[in-house]
Write a structure and sequence with these properties.
Helices cover 16% and strands 23% of the residues. By secondary structure, it is an alpha+beta fold.
């Protein structure tokens, strides 16, 4: 995702949900583990084009399951610890503040059909959780508060961590 909005302006595509919250933003049921899930939105495949706007890629979309997102989240803290931090120089800050980021999860299929989950990490002090469901959130600058990374399901590895720059 490229930071396309000027001056940190939110670009969102409005979608009406009626009175009900989208299923992926509802509170865990009593049957689910007590582990606290991060604030996030699993983007349905039919809406993914409104969240993943990289025109350089011709991608197909799919809807990740909660279990697949849980797997990603289980591995994300370890990815952000050294030696990963040596690659980007930014991950230490992200790891220490991970609970302060909202997420948008988009399922991508590559040319071979391999499943990947692209996750956008969005600083929640600047946005509210309902905005995560509206569409892509793009800001200019913002540094480590706005990052993206892709998780490859088969290999269970992360690739391509990108964070915004700072003016």
């Amino acid at each position: 995702m490229r930071a396309l909005a000027a001056f940190g302006v939110l670009i969102s595509l409005s979608v009406a949900w009626g009175d009900a919250s989208p299923p992926s933003l509802r509170a865990p049921s009593a049957k689910e583990p007590a582990r606290r899930r991060p604030t996030g939105f699993i983007v349905p495949a039919d809406r993914a084009r409104h969240f993943y706007l990289d025109p350089s890629e011709k991608v197909r979309f799919w809807t990740p399951s909660q279990a697949e997102v849980d797997l990603l989240e289980e591995r994300l803290p370890a990815f952000l610890k050294p030696p990963a931090s040596k690659k980007s120089g930014r991950t230490d800050y992200i790891a220490k503040n991970l609970s302060r980021y909202g997420r948008q999860y988009v399922g991508l299929l590559d040319d071979s059909g391999a499943k990947r989950i692209w996750v956008s990490l969005i600083w929640l002090d600047d946005w509210n959780r309902d905005q995560l469901t509206k569409g892509v959130i793009m800001v200019s600058d913002g540094g480590d508060h706005y990052c993206r990374v892709t998780f490859e399901l088969q290999s269970r590895r992360f690739e391509g961590l990108e964070c915004n720059g700072v003016a």
